[in-house]
Amino acid sequence: MRQARHRLTVTVVGAGVIGLWQAYEFARRGHRVLVCEAAPEKATGAASRLAGAMLAPYCEAETAPALVTELGLRSLVHWRELMPTLSTRGTLVVTCRRDEAELFHFARRTTGHLSIGLGDLSALESELSQRFGRALYYGDEGHVPPRLALSLLIDRLRSLGAELRFSQPVSGPLWLAAGAGELVIDCRGMAAQCNLAGLRGVAGEMAVLHAPGVRLSRPIRLLHPRAPVYIVPWGDGTYMVGATMLESAAVGGMSLRSALELLGSATVVHQGFAGAQVVEMSTGIRPAYDDNLPKVVWRGRCLSVNGAYRHGFLLAPALAEMVADHLEMGTVLPPELTEYKRRTGTMA
After folding, report:
1. Model's pTM, two decimal places?
2. Domain 93-139+200-286 belongs to what topology?
3. Model confidence over 184-201: pLDDT tens digits?
């Protein structure tokens, strides 16, 4: 990584995956970095702690704009540099035999996959071959355990000399907080909603299961007309099960309906989950704009990076690289990521 010609002083507010990658990108370029986070270190990350953390640019293309795939592929490179042991075993997309039309439609809307039959499926995940006859295999995708990834980013920041202040909320208009020659990057997620017109909350519900009798080595996506689900291995027999997306910013526990759907769909994928221990059931609120793309907007010397929707881990490294290039060299950001301020006049 090249060193910057002019050393910047950057304060990043918010230590979710977006904020930590912003801080890490500036720190490894040789800039002076301070990170301020309201939560204690063991609880940092807010919605990032509850993410599936699937690095799945091809699968996300089924519903996401093309820019998500483009930036996601760039991010995969940076994740591999940060975590050389990153699991890149790919993603398997399956469906019940009666719903195989769903698999066909998913394949038509995405690229980067192979359509595989029973033999190849058995070789990739032998424990699924008795339940599914065919699948889509996205071999270039990966995933990270989210909480481990957040801890690693924190450790890397400290090794680069960055200062991190946890349990230190920053309130008030951040664009008034920047001192002379200082840049503030606001990555507070939903905590910044009062300053960002149009930012909405999307609730994502998840369960963490300990199922040592289940042996899956890559994320599995089950397509289902009513209860789709994804299952992500976190290691040591622990799996994250998620899928539900609710247009709500209300913080609360998981609904009984969501719990039944998630856990029931998990047993459809693998009967071994019926005997799993439920370790955690949580709801996280993801910030999003109306087009479900993040936005990078200025106000004074404060730059807001927010609204990654369900793509925080997938987009964070590429967003950090683009913002750093923009501040160092004046490169132009993609219009889809900046048009929000022109359309509404906020944060200009």
Report:
1. 0.92
2. D-Amino Acid Oxidase; Chain A, domain 2 (3.30.9)
3. 999 999 999 988 889 999
